[in-house]
Every structure is written in C-alpha cells, then in structure tokens.
Amino acid sequence: MIPGTVDVTNELAVFLRTRRERLDPRDFGLPARRQARRTPGLRREEVAELAGVSTDYIVRLEQARGLRPSAEVVEALARALRLTPDERALLFGLARQRPRSADKLATVAEPLLAQLVADLSPLPAMLMNHRYDILAWNSEMAKLLPNFDTLPPQQRNAMWLCLMHPETRDFYIDRERVVREGIAHLRTAWAAHPEDQALTDLITQCITHDQEFARLWAERDVKVNGRGRKMMRHPDAGVIAVHFETLTPLQDPDQLLVIYRAADDESQSALDRLYTR
Predict the structure, then answer these.
(1) Which PROSITE patterns does the UniProt record give (predicted)?
(2) Distance between CA atoms of 216 and 269, rounded to whole angstroms?
(3) Which residue has the higher pLDDT, 117 or 29?
C-alpha cells in the first residue's frame, strides 16, 4: 500500500498504542495479580500512572481525538514507554513539539567525530557545539586560526575569539558579515537551549563588552548560514579566501562539523605555504 498524506494525529495515536503494547509488564514490577491480561503490553491506566496523566487523556490520545500534548507531557510519555532516543525524537515530531536537550549539551567532542576532524586533513576542520565552543580541530585549522589552540578552554569559542581576542579581532576582512551570521546562529541556539546558562553568559558578555555585537543582537536576525565564503587576513600567509561548510551529525545534532576549502588558487598556495611552516 502506498501511503498518502500523513495524518499526524492518527500516526501519533497508533505510535503510542504500538509502543504501549510491546512493553512487558514484568519489567515494571507490576503485581502478579495484575498480569492476567487479554491484550499485550501495559494497560492504558498503567501508562497514565507512569506518565502522571489521566487514563482518559491516554484514551483520547490513542483514539486520535485531536489532542496536542505539551512538551512536558510528551517527555513524560517517552519515559513511561521507555522509548529509544530515535523513538523519542519521532514522538516529539508527531506531537509538533521540540524536545529539551539539557542532558545532552555537548561540552566535549564525541570521539568518532574528533577522529573524523583529524582524518579530514589537509582540509582545515573543527568541531564546535551549539554555542560555538571549539571542541576539536586538526593541525591545519590550528595554523589557519592563529594561536587559538594555546588558549584556555573557556576562551576557545569562535564568537569570543572574533570579538574579544586581540589576534583575531581584525582577522576577518568581512568582519561584520561574519559577526552577523554568528549572532544569528547564537540567537537560534539560545532559543533552542534556554536552560544553557553558559550560552546566556556568553551572550551577556558579548553584549556588555562589544558595541557591534550589541547592535547586531538587537536586530534579532535569525537566519543561519551553514555554507559560504570568508576572507581572512592571516599574519603569516596574507589574504586567504575560503569556502566553508557546516555539517550537523544525525547522532549528535548539537555538534557542528566545520570544513574549510581554499576558494581560489592563490588562497590554496597561501594555505600550502602555511602548512609547511
């Protein structure tokens, strides 16, 4: 059968019912007298109790009666039904809600992604989290962005470097566009992670200490550009133009893989000289 247009309300109902029916009551320590069942899985009232909602609410959800559960209820249902991360993501999508991910905020590089960054040599590459903290980089990126790898971890942040670090403040020839695009990303990340105090502190610091950031932040631009061109004025190699690509791994959506490529022959020659220094 070829599926037609998705009815998300009905799909949500079927998904909840099938996930409830696949559960083994014994895994929940239910009393033996409650285990004589005519249907597989948990009863609706048991799921309701585990999720902290009424049985009638579960019935209405499974009967596709037009309910749209809140993000908090969706999270409670995901825990009650013991959903996998992928199933949890689908449940949030069907409920047209966005999950909170405070427990998964990336502060260190996922090891396989860090290895991928190294394997991308000789292309300059780095791994960042949603707040632009630089988590991993290869030797080419360390040579392209002057001395950032010698800074303490709390200062290895792409936005902080651009705004606050003396060696990189004038590094980008098209500085305002770079800052504007960075702010658009930070605002989007800030809206998605309102619980991330470190991100809020970074934005507050930038607003307080940099008038350009404060002015652009007030414009509330939210267009995120994951692909483009940057012009750099390197202290040793001169002007370098690069194309950049920002990729988001499916398994780690809060980590961003950034890859640079020379935009022209002159820039490639400058990079080659830089890498052999």
Answers:
(1) HTH_CROC1
(2) 35
(3) 117
Domain containing 29 equals 8-99
CA distances from 225 to 8, 127, 164, 204, 212 (A): 30, 16, 22, 23, 19
**pLDDT classification of 260: cutoffs 50, 70, 90:** very high
Q: What is the DSSP letter of 64?
A: T
Amino acid letter, 233: R
- Please, what is the Cα angle at 87 between 81 and 88, to 5 degrees? 75
Do residues 94 and 111 share a domain? Answer: no
Q: How many CA atoms lie within 13 A of 28 on its CB side?
A: 20
**Tens digit of each residue's pLDDT (9 = 90 or more) over 4-30:** 566 888 989 999 999 999 998 888 887
H or E stretch covering 158: helix 158-164
Q: What is the pTM of this model?
A: 0.72
- Spatial contact of 164 and 209, defined as CB atoms under 8 Å apart: yes
Q: How far apart are the first and last CA of the chain?
A: 62
Strand partners, 261: 243
Residues 35 and 123 in one domain: no
pLDDT for 31 beyond 70: no
| Tokens encoding 210 | 């940099």
Q: Report the relative pairing of strands 134-137 and 227-234 from DSSP bridges.
A: unpaired
Q: Using a pLDDT cut of 90, give the percent of the chain over it.
A: 47
68 and 122 belong to one structural domain? no
CA angle 222/247/124 to nearest 5° reads 110
52-62, pLDDT tens digit by residue? Answer: 999 999 999 99
Whether 74 contacts 97, CB under 8 Å: yes
